[in-house]
Amino acid sequence: MKALDVLNNHRTYRNFDEEYQLSDEELQQILQASCQAPSWMNGQMYSIIVVKDKKIRKQLVELNPGNPHMLKSSVFLVFVADLKRTQKVAEHYQVDYPINQGIDPLITAITDTALALENAVVATEALGLGSVIVGSIRKDIAEVSKLLNLPDYVFPVAGLSIGKPIVEMRVKPRLPKEVVIHYDTYQDYDYQLIEDYDETMETFAEARETKLWSKKFADYFGRTPNQKIDEFLKINKFFQD
Question: Which residues form the Nitroreductase domain (predicted)?
Fold first, then answer.
């Protein structure tokens, strides 16, 4: 498929043919495309855990039962921000590694990881397959990290279920361009545009959505953020106590 067609027709799939087996060639094509993503200074500050083991995937679902596709998809990838590699480099050159004194190194690594993840999504769709990103693996981040044997300086960002879809999905409407696209400087906009989008999404009527788009995020960000993330980042040497 042409790149623009793939990008403009992106859909998230959560229901996969459990009998379909992703070929090794397809998997390697996806991984290669992922590894060719842009990265800061060519640092490539991420790693990809290819989870084929059904026992591990079953345990992931037990931790996160709302995402059974982690077991039922053909393969499950976990994208992790990886500052362990650069820590090894620092040790080799016998220099300090004070990344816990600021947030920028973590932002850099998470950005690299997100770019690699998006390349994997695009490659998957170019092969005629489907995927769903699983950010909720961070809900039980310490348990997931232990299950995948992740060392310190490594942070699980998101998972990716890949497989052959069995339920067709529609292309989901996006926010009005006036809300998202700004030229030269950030421009404020009328809140009516968000209310218009609420109406658009109500009309779209995705079955899994039970709230207005705006109310969903008002409720989400109205809660205290997941404190397990903060604890994990301190324990794994990303931040000082």
Answer: 9-164
